[in-house]
């Protein structure tokens, strides 16, 4: 009990006081080591003369600067690694050599010499006392924590303010041993912050291997999105868990505690930093308006609805063909918002229903998310894909223009660029439909805005590869990749929802707006990273004992190896938002679109899948 009280007293003592006590202890210890060396050499009680006493006093005066230079007072006793013994031996050895040099110089002045056995005895005794005392103190004072700390040794990536606060919080909890900081700032390398050494990023693998690190904690300010993704790639072959500290803005807002860590999320692997929304653009076209969201029960539509209700619309009509998803979304939104939320069941190709909804609720904004988007499924169901994605968009856009809707925004896809599958072709038709009605609205001077927003893959959305990989990991694998070199652009579902709303404010009518998507992500890398994030290992020829295998199954019909965001990358122009771009309008006229849609309707009525497919690609690629 008394020992426990003593441990707590020492633990609560300020670090500066602990260092002062350690310095005093070393001075006494080195002096005692020399006196004991003489005692052992002569075999009787030893009383030094004045010259010998001066040499004894000089020992700690020589030793202490050496100990400071070797960092013996930077280390925290409770976190002292076993490898530190070699540093202490080096420090003691150099201090003894310097003391011997002093003794030799005094001999040259005519003083009594030092017996040859004394330096050796002094060296052995100093090592035993200096090293032994520190490890004895570590064992005596901190042994109850030893097993728990060694079970969780971590490195903190980023030695900035967030990293330092985190280190303090983890230390105070006595649950994690912070072995060091890792930072790209060369000015910090070799320094000790809070008694913790800062190492360069190049030594990361060595540190993990030598220190037995099982956890790496990344501060969000330390790495950009693409750096974070590359870091995950470096750690694939190492048995280390990656966690991330929430942003300082979230900490100061009270969303998290500084000691609260989250597992690194799939959104952290976008290959870029998330694009912040412009609050002015978000509010501009939503506040106090009646809003209709089609496909509201889907992953993108539902996130869009969650974003909209935070912007104080007058009314939100959620429209979907799926009863269960609309029911769940209505319950969720009603619980968090005072906005009037009206659920509507139906198909966007149902013209009488659409006309009634637009008129009855005096809709001002339409966000058109409803579409069939599973590439293989639409490839097998060409007629229904064309009916829903093309005819449905035409019905909705035409009736919206007729009803005086102020903003109409279509959610399109990067697969609409030079489409190689039916889904992409239908999305290209939808873009052209919106462009046609935008041109008509401009010609009539109605002030209505029709725009398309073109996405890459939305992480976690229905049809995205991410939910598929998650499901395959949950079942123990394997993960199926169509081609090892296939790449895709990814964005978070939050970015998608905010971009849809901002598009209405930025569009000049008939535009196609895109998010600056950064680098395309290699799908195989994404699969490997998701296995790593699940705390599992990759099974391959080099690691047959791994947990999850990745199997290449070959490109499916209609799939591209690399998706594109623009028809003409040189024709892209900026908007008022630095990360949102406007695609160049196509040179071809869309005036003959009504006739093409009429022809498509006739082929759909005949259920002629081959003819529908042919017409879709003929017009989409023209």
Automatic annotation (TrEMBL):
It comes from the Bacteria. This is Polysaccharide biosynthesis protein.
């Amino acid at each position: 009990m008394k020992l426990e009280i003593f441990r707590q007293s020492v633990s609560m003592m300020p670090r500066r006081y602990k260092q002062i006590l350690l310095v005093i202890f070393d001075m006494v210890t080195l002096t005692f080591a020399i006196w004991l060396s003489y005692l052992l050499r002569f075999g009787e009680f030893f009383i030094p003369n004045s010259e010998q006493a001066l040499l004894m006093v000089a020992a700690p005066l020589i030793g202490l600067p050496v100990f400071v230079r070797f960092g013996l007072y930077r280390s925290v006793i409770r976190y002292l690694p076993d490898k530190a013994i070699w540093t202490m031996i080096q420090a003691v050895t150099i201090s003894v050599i310097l003391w011997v040099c002093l003794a030799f110089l005094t001999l040259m002045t005519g003083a009594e010499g030092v017996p040859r056995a004394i330096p050796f005895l002094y060296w052995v005794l100093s090592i035993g006392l200096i090293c032994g005392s520190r490890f004895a103190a570590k064992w005596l004072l901190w042994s109850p924590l030893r097993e728990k700390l060694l079970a969780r040794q971590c490195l903190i990536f980023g030695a900035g303010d967030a990293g330092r606060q985190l280190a303090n919080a983890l230390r105070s909890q006595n649950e994690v041993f912070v072995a060091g900081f890792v930072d790209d700032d060369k000015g910090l390398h070799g320094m000790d912050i809070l008694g913790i050494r800062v190492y360069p990023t190049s030594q990361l693998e060595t540190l993990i291997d030598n220190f037995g690190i099982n956890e790496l904690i990344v501060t969000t300010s330390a790495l950009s999105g693409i750096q974070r993704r590359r870091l995950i790639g470096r750690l694939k072959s190492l048995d280390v868990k990656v966690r991330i500290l929430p942003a300082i803005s979230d900490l100061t807002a009270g969303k998290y505690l500084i000691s609260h860590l989250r597992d690194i999320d799939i959104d952290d692997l976008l290959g870029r930093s998330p694009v912040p929304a412009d609050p002015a653009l978000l509010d501009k076209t939503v506040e106090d308006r009646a809003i209709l969201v089609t496909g509201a029960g889907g992953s993108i539509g539902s996130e869009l609805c969650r974003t909209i209700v935070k912007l104080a619309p007058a009314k939100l009509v959620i429209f979907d063909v799926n009863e269960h998803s609309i029911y769940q979304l209505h319950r969720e939104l009603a619980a968090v918002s005072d906005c009037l939320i009206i659920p509507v069941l139906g198909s966007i190709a149902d013209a009488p229903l659409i006309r009634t909804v637009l008129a009855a609720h005096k809709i001002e904004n339409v966000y058109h998310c409803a579409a069939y988007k599973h590439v293989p499924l639409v490839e097998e169901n060409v007629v229904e894909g064309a009916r829903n994605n093309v005819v449905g968009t035409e019905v909705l856009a035409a009736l919206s223009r007729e009803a005086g809707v102020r903003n109409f925004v279509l959610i399109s896809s990067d697969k609409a660029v030079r489409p190689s599958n039916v889904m992409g072709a239908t999305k290209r038709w939808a873009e052209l439909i919106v462009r046609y009605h935008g041109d008509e609205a401009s010609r009539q001077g109605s002030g209505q805005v029709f725009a398309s927003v073109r996405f890459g893959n939305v992480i976690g959305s229905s049809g995205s590869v991410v939910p598929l990989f998650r499901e395959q990991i949950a079942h123990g694998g394997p993960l199926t990749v169509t081609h090892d070199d296939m790449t895709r652009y990814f964005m978070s579902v939050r970015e998608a929802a905010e971009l849809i709303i901002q598009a209405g404010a930025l569009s000049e009518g008939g535009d196609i707006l895109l998010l600056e998507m950064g680098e395309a992500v290699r799908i195989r890398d994404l699969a490997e990273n998701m296995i790593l994030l699940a705390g599992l290992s990759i099974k391959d020829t080099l690691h047959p004992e791994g947990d999850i295998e990745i199997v290449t199954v070959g490109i499916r019909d209609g799939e591209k190896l690399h998706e594109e965001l623009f028809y003409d990358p040189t024709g892209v122009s900026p908007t008022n938002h630095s990360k949102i771009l406007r695609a160049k309008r196509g040179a071809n006229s869309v005036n003959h679109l009504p006739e093409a849609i009429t022809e498509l309707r006739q082929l759909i009525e005949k259920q002629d899948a081959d003819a529908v497919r042919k017409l879709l690609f003929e017009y989409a690629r023209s």
